[in-house]
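DM from R.C. (forwarded with permission)

"hey, sorry to bug you on a friday — could you get me a structure for this? deadline for the figure draft is monday and I only need the backbone to look sensible"
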Amino acid sequence: MGCRMDEAFSTIRSFVKDQPVFVLCSGGVDSSVCAALLTRALPSEQVKLISIDNGFLRHNESNEIRETLSQFATVNYIDAGQRFSQAKTYVRTKASTLSNEKDSTVQRRTSVSTSFLSLFDADILLEETLPLNEEIDPEHKRKIIGDTFIKVVQEFLRDNNFTFDDIILAQGTLRPDLIESASHLATQSGHADAIKTHHNDSPMVRQLRKLNRVIEPLKDFHKDEVRQIGLTLGLHPNVINRHPFPGPGLAIRILCADEPYMPVEYFSQTSILLKTIINYSTISEQQPILDKIFSENEKKLLKNLTSSDQHDYTSLLLPVDLIK
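My reply, with the result:
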């Protein structure tokens, strides 16, 4: 591992040279170790840290992140919660959508350009996603978040008289991130299917890589190796052992749907079953049919758990729906 760290230092110095480096930090293990590597390999004044609050962090997490990162360098904190909530991006049009082009109401464009990047080649059709706070497709959410991170960084650079031509963007990307996103960096054949698109491997990030504006010194490492590097670099155990929390934060874990999750015909049945379970001790004698539903062990367990002298349960089954 020591040799691999030395190799990482050498790669950083030869790639970056004298250009300023802006490290995109979430405060997690990966980005913290990435920041530590860069500040050890380069003069401290050459490395700038950017922490973007996308509005989907855990309670008080943004404060904890700033405290963690301040041990490496000055942290440029950006509160972009409202920006992410309304953000959109463009994704490849699905084949099924193309086949029904006459009936589709989705707006399509043959190319999409920002002020600094072109997302795809002109012969690939794109469609615009819904705003993040309305989007129900997890893959679309991930791409919205990844591209919005880059857009927010671009605006920060512009406000500070930089462009992507002037700086190097650093990310704490790991090998599993690239594998799961089916990145060409991990699958040279180009035939792998994406398990899930990581925010640090979104379409805009890939374009920046092609322009040689991104450095990812941990891209050949796995999580256990990154933790070992962090310990070697002297990071606090609280940082090294921090519970993994991906860049999209809670945005992916908040489930959304365009219709009730449970069909109406099953809702009342499930509600009755739930009430039967929590009231088993009081209704089992009245309804012998329950003996045919539960095994002997289940009946003993339920009778003990729901006895009125030990517990007093109530039940409420809630439908899940998307409110627009």
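R.C.: lifesaver. The longest strand covers residues 47-53.
me: no worries. Residues 183 and 262 are 36 Å apart (CA to CA).
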